[in-house]
Design goal:
Coiled coil (chains A, B): 185-212
Domain D-serine dehydratase-like (chains A, B): 263-370
CATH architecture of the largest domain in chain A: Alpha-Beta Barrel
Family (chains A, B): Belongs to the DSD1 family.
CATH topology of the largest domain in chain A: TIM Barrel
Pfam families (chains A, B): Ala_racemase_N, D-ser_dehydrat
Strand content of chain A: 15-25%
CATH class of the largest domain in chain A: Alpha Beta
Largest interface: A-B, 60 and 60 residues
Oligomer: homodimer
Organism (chains A, B): Idiomarina xiamenensis 10-D-4
Mean pLDDT of chain A: 95
Number of domains of chain A: 2
Order of helices and strands of chain A: EHEHEHEHEHEHEHEHEHEEHEEEEHEE
Largest sheet of chain A: 8 strands, parallel
Chain lengths: 384, 384
């Protein structure tokens, strides 16, 4: 029987709530640390904060406040900076109107890199730095797989922009890429190819820049699936990843974790039965689970999540197949009615999420349990 | 050219943010008021708070604090009660462990109804009321369309449960149904049938109860699509609806509003181009838009939302076709590359949401504008 952890204290808070199994989270963090350590002595991990987004988790991600972290919003950076964290990459293409907030972070002594991939952004950043007499460190985003944004590593534009930054009032710091398409890999070979493409793009870009006499101090790659691969990391300075801390059904579908590695779940109560159809109705709808249907793109669609009992036993053949605002509908995946007598009204269940980043985002607080069933409440940083 | 409202102040806050056109919202609220008023003198509207979930909006929904409101969480009820609102229905099947919170609301003088549809819940509520010497008002949930939960109006169980409540320590207050399937209607005839089925179920149930000598003070129906229909409301005491306040692309797809009636939108900035594919990259991903893909079930799938410029002109043939955590990807719906030169980096756009309830849920604050471009910030009530 597939077993996720039992959380004896799941009876405590009102449902629905987001629970983290802290020991599983710590094991996941240690796994990544060991994995990267085994591949290279010189590559650092720059964990992506966007999954957990809580100050309470930061000490587990970083050994001290000067260690590198990635953020998806300036809000995260500001909250981290306020308590002393000082080494950040804001990994979403910069909008010019956000530059005063970056400047304020620099003024606090934070080494905050921004990223960009086009001429308009380079001009805006150089102009802003000149006008305000500050020096913002910039990474150029590379496109390694056609996923979203970035410049191809072999594009002449890369050299042009880097030189403009180097010669302008900003500081050119390096290159950064993200193998977003790795989320659509279906087997180990595809995954390895995605990881290889990511490091190849970063290496090629940095080499081309150095060949032109442009220093490229940081060479950053990463996504959880590619970070957990074993391609050669020579020439790479750091690896970014976020969802490895908690894992989820998408990562399980890609094959980079087991169900027992999923550290976050939504605890819910059975509040009704549809006896005619053989459905369970619960109090965890998309407000608690998110509307993310990420597993639909993997080898197995798990609806809005898989179901375990409160003791941690995975209930094979069940899933959350519908989610309304405050209602979830649990059905059998084979379409037959489930035996509702097995699930009395009031029964607590645990739902494993499709996409941990999305499910965490629905919760202001996380209920955190360890293997002694000690209980903490962690608060999420919200907004932009 | 289809036009939604221009929000001149969209240049003000940092993007992404949630904007409400207050005048459109007020027009929507007035439309429902007039519509129900024209159908019956005796039917009241019990607005569903779950869409807006902000105390700032409550005075526009209710003429005074004793007027009826529906909530989707006890958290909403508690926040409303703290400032004096006193007439609520918590319209999600009750879990026994939530009863002390209901009791606390009663102790504050709030007339807070709960809903249920099964024997275990009736026993739990009667027992709780007896043990704690309180009287909780209970509505029995009816199933009018096989959507989710509830008891069929012709089921013998209805009488059994109502009598147990009447004879027990709780108070039986009436019946409530919700035509959830109306969200899947494709034409006016289906919509009318859904509305008819909803009132038919409520009327039949209340009649059967009265025939058995069981008082049925409240007979509650509602969903935005059915509330806006024109079926005969005789025998109905109240209509519930929520998303009519803001409307969205699902409601547009069902045919109960125009695009210009959609009062909520996410304001975003163009932060990149994928020139090769002809895509715009923006800073509104699913963290700002939600992952809701509700329009996929209507006659026209609008991806993660339709796109208007900051002046309010709908950009025909564009949609948000992909959403990552903090990135949206805007493409042409015909698959051809769009002319990225028309959308300089830094351009602000407005995204019309699939499902307003879901998009609002991603934001702690709403930026509210009126036709004088006066600006307010409303705070959302969060959690359960």
């Amino acid at each position: 029987m597939t077993k996720i952890s039992s959380l004896a204290l799941v009876e405590k808070p009102d449902t629905p709530f987001l629970a983290i199994d802290k020991n599983v989270m710590l094991r996941n963090i240690e796994r990544m640390r060991k994995h990267i350590g085994s591949r290279s002595d010189s590559v650092t991990i720059r964990p992506h904060f966007k999954t957990l987004r809580t100050l309470d988790a930061a000490p587990y991600l970083l050994s001290d406040q000067s260690q590198p972290i990635t953020v998806s919003t300036l809000k995260e950076a500001e909250v981290l900076a306020a308590v002393g964290y000082s080494n950040m990459t804001y990994a979403v293409g910069i909008a010019a109107h956000k530059l005063p907030r970056v400047q304020a972070l620099l003024a606090q002594g934070v080494d905050c890199r921004i990223i960009l991939d086009n001429q308009a952004q380079v001009t805006a950043v150089n102009d802003f730095c000149q006008q305000t007499q500050c020096t913002i460190a910039v990474m150029i985003e590379l496109d390694c797989d056609g996923h979203r944004g970035g410049i191809r590593a072999d594009d002449a534009e890369l050299i042009t922009l880097a030189r403009q930054l180097q010669d302008g009032a900003a500081e050119f710091r390096g290159v950064l890429t993200h193998a977003g398409e790795s989320y659509h890999c279906h087997d180990a070979q595809q995954l390895r190819q995605a990881a290889q493409a990511e490091v190849d793009a970063a290496r090629l870009a940095s080499q081309r820049l150095r060949d032109q006499g442009i220093a490229c101090a940081e060479v950053s790659v990463g996504s959880t699936p590619t970070a957990l691969s074993d391609v050669d990391l020579r020439g790479i300075s750091e690896v970014r990843a976020g969802v490895y801390t908690l894992f989820d059904l998408v990562m399980y579908g890609i094959g980079v974790c087991q169900l027992a590695d999923i550290a976050a779940r939504v605890v819910t109560t059975v509040i009704g039965h549809n006896a005619e159809r053989g459905w369970l109705l619960t109090d965890a709808g998309w407000m608690a689970l998110s509307s993310d249907r990420g597993s639909a793109a993997t080898w197995q669609d798990h609806g809005y999540g898989l179901v375990a009992d409160s003791a941690g036993n995975l209930l094979q053949g069940l899933q959350v197949s519908q989610a309304n605002q405050e209602h979830g509908v649990i059905t059998r995946t084979d379409g037959k009615p489930l035996n509702i007598e097995d699930f009395a009204i009031g029964t607590r269940l645990q739902i494993l999420p499709n996409h941990a980043c999305a499910t965490m985002a629905m919760h202001d607080h996380y209920q955190v349990f360890d293997d002694q069933n000690r209980h903490q409440i962690w608060s999420r940083i919200r907004g932009w």
